[in-house]
Amino acid sequence: GGGIYFATSPFETERKAIGPDSHIGFMIKATVDVGRVEHLGRKCNKNLNGEMLDNMGYDSVTFNPSDGQEYIVYNSDRILSTVQIPYHCSRRCRFNGRETVCRKCR
User: Which residues span the domain enclosing 77?
Assistant: First the structure.
């Protein structure tokens, strides 16, 4: 849904970043005030939004779709700080097998 998603470790971030520009450039390390957390099962309610969550008395959502815990906030004010960290793949680059730094290898 329309929330801001966070993983709990760089390794989990690598597995979750799946957009067309994922794994290129940097990772964002964030300090997030998750407040009161609604714990969901393996599936997240895709219809859930910030207003609905607030009406339920929660500030964030967490769930594990089987590839690591995720936290979702719907209010950017809950993000207390961010730092850009250079991103280096833990896997070999498909473009050049000797590279360990992503260079837009698609």
Answer: 4-86
